[in-house]
Design a protein that fits this description.
2 strands
Length: 104
């Protein structure tokens, strides 16, 4: 996917002002400056942004000479249990809210 300058600037700004990769994804999903889904490919339908996508996007930007700060994938505080988890509950909360906005 080709990203516009505005979308890339929004990504870099969000990355540099976030504390985790999960936060980057949540903030991009909430903003209007970046598409909330990735285009469909031959092996999947359109999908929401993910922490894996955000890390890959950051790596691609860094390969172009832009130095980005290190971000952990998710903090132990974000999981709510004090341990690492394979489940990103912050991202799931955003997903749940987006699917049923009347529950706010």
């Amino acid at each position: 996917m080709a990203y516009t300058h505005k979308q890339t600037a929004a990504f870099v700004t969000t990355w540099q002002t976030s504390s985790t990769v999960a936060e980057v994804v949540c903030r991009l999903l909430e903003s209007g400056d970046h598409p909330s889904t990735l285009p469909a490919s031959s092996w999947n339908d359109k999908r929401l942004l993910s922490t894996q996508w955000a890390k890959q996007r950051a790596n691609a930007i860094e390969r172009q000479g832009v130095s980005l700060k290190y971000l952990p994938p998710v903090t132990s505080r974000a999981t709510g249990r004090g341990t690492r988890s394979n489940v990103d509950y912050t991202l799931l909360a955003v997903l749940a809210r987006d699917l049923c906005p009347d529950n706010d």
